[in-house]
Amino acid sequence: MKLLNNRRHLPYEDARTSRRNLAHSSSFAWLAEVFRLSLHCSQSTFPLWNALTQKQFRMRQLYTLAIVLLTALTECLGQTVWYDPMQTSGETYIHNQGWNEDGGNYHRFPDRAKGLVREKVWELACQSAGLAIRFSTDAREVSVRYVVSQPQSMPHMPATGVSGVDLYRADDMAFCFGSYSFGDTIRYHYTLDKGVAVGREAEYVLYLPLYNEVTCLEIGVPKASRFAFVPTVKKDPIVLYGTSIAQGACASRPGMAWANIVGRQIECPFINLGFSGNGKLESEIIDLICEQRPSIVLLDCMPNMGAIESDEIIRRMKEAVRRISKIPGVVILLVEHAGNSNALTYEAQVRESARCNAAQQIAYAQLQEEGVKNLFYLSREELGLAPDAWVDYVHPSDYGMAQYASAIVKKLREIIVHAQWTSRQS
Fold first, then answer.
1. Is 69 exposed, middle or buried (0-12, 13-18, 19+ CB in 10 A)?
2. 375-425: per-residue pLDDT in tens?
3. Of these four, 45, 175, 352, 425, which has the most CB atoms within 10 Å of its CB?
């Protein structure tokens, strides 16, 4: 794929631009233009013309060209109109994104953080876990096409979870299953012909990939349909700082990551700062969290603290809480290590998670003694994951994610009620 303005081409990106100049032309004229542009692009993406002249045209290349032309014909006859949330003026349409100061991207940290956080944290921050796009439309057919920059699957997590998207109808959070194909461009197609009267608009939430970087994305609807992106909500967010579990491993699809489940049930922007293997209570990330002026902060880092001495865990936790607690009105929730699937069969694994939890308990008790207000705690027992709730030794399955989310939501609702009661008393 060629690079253009530091982002990868979507197929027909040039054709889409040309269509603006062909709005009053016939469908066949448009198809001819797409064919011309596809040949032009093909010469740069693989040596089509040279291969033909050198009699080296392989079947795979022929198949690729056939798919390109078939897609062009489908979009031509259906007159799909494509919308790019980055190609808008003034408004921000990427929900749950704490920082949007760099001209538009699908990253979780601003560009200026690249020199502040460790390189591995920065790489993970470029993955779009927790980010979502909201839009309203009366269309009964919706398509999504996008490009990612990293491997599309992992041995213990499918492509639909690592690199897929998920669509929900906003008013009742009904899950919208879409047919999909994974390639250089990933494509989803949704049929939405139930639950909304013909001609009426509905709002939808599109969750972005959990473990991949999105470089460009478009949403397509039939030409006659109404479509509009929904701007972000101006409200103090909930911020989650954690590990691979917080980032979404190993949900089968983005909507089943526990943070996204919580976000659907708690009406508040939910910023996911889960970093696989790298949720270690680092001061640079605490600084960035404080920039958000959050209403609630969840610290869920114990699964990544196993290689750190207990005294250092206590120090880091106390420092993080002290700094965050300076934000007026903020509530802080400390979450324990949920345990391991092999807790009944592997003693060393049990000792490690128990040691981390014990260190966090000591920090919590000492902070309470210091008089830190609005500090809450969620134990391993309250999380209550069953032995079959994991994909491997530590990463929850969809079943485990649902259990995890249920415990978090229960605790957050208790916290919200407590905050409302405290506010009335003051």
1. middle
2. 999 999 999 999 899 999 999 999 999 999 999 999 999 998 887 766 555
3. 352
